[in-house]
Amino acid sequence: MAESLENLSQCFLPQLVDQIFENHQKHVSGSQTKEEERGQLFYDLSRLLGEELVERSLHLLDSYSFVYYRAGGHRNLCVVELCKGTEVFRLLPRINYCKCDFFQSHVLQLPRGILYHDIPSCQQRYLEDWSEESRASYTCPHILSLRFHQLLKPSTEQVIKPDQLRQLYDEIFRD
Ligand SMILES: [Zn+2]
Fold it and tell me: How many angstroms separate the alpha carbon of residue 29 from the centre of ligand 1?
C-alpha cells in the first residue's frame, strides 16, 4: 500500500508541486505568520522532493543573481538567467528543463557525456557531492530556486528586442 501510494504521488508530482506553491501564494491557511507559512512551504516541498534539493535550491536563491528577460510586446514570453560569476543557466519559467549536470544525470537519468561530449563517458554517472537519496529527482536546484525566486523575491526585469529574446530562447534547447 505504501508503495502504491508512493507511485501515485510520483505520477502527480508536477501537479502536487504546483499545488504547494499555489496554496502558499493564496495564504490558504490564513492563521499562520509569514515565517510559519514559509516553513510549511519548505517542509511540504522537502517531503515531496527531498530535503537536500530544497536546501540547495534555497542556497542558490542567495548566491545567484536572477534576471528576467522579456520582449516589450510579448509579456508572457520570458527567459530567466541565473548567474554566478561566469556560470550561467538559462531557464523558462514553468518548464522543467535545465542544461545542468544534475538535470541530465539525476532527473533524465542519462549517463553523463550524452549532452556534453567533452566529458569522458567513463565518468561516474551520479554527481559525487549529492547523497544517494537525490539520485532520482523530479527537478534540479536551478529550476526549484527559480520558483522560490518568483515567489519570494522581487524580480529584476530587462526588456530586450524580440529577436534577442528568441536567440536566448533557442540557446536553451541547443546542445
Ligand atoms: Zn539545473
Answer: 31
